[in-house]
Amino acid sequence: MRRLILKPAPTMNPTIPCITPSTLRHGQSFESFVVSPPNALAVADAYAVAGAPGMGFNPLFIYGDHDAGKTHLLRAIYRQAVEIRPNTKIFLVECRTPPTDLRCLHDADILLLDDADLLSRAECKEILVIIQAMLKSRKQVVLSSVGLPTKLLVLDANGFLLKRAVISPLISSRPANIH
User: Fold this and answer.
1) N or C terminus: fewer CB in 10 A for the chain?
2) Quick check: pTM over 0.85?
3) Residue 14 CB: number of other CB atoms within 10 A?
């Protein structure tokens, strides 16, 4: 059985595995992200979220092809938000593996869901409840995925997420590999 990897900011319970800006992969910041015309909007939206979480672009969906830089942007948001507000409770959730217990996410000020398109239907139901509660409390939610996370959006029967969402496509600036 797969497990969801929860990575809270250091202000959370020390028994939960956590990352800090210093343990993020070197260079995963806004300064090291290569901005090009196709991805400038997604980068600007991510930067705005890091500077003023919960204030504007909420929830923010960042989607694009594999290796377009979605994880890099989520980690840049994490790093920037912690630098600006060191006591901010941030969870970076890597959705490549399903959750075992998501109750701790209710305490987050910022929730970053990487690869949200990989969540199962059951996981989406649980995450959706958390996201809706966070949005009602003006806490920031950012989701990344290859394409829109349709399982999550389909379960959102009243359209709560899409009515509020800012959707930013992230288009890779790398040339395509031609074989």
Assistant:
1) C
2) no
3) 9
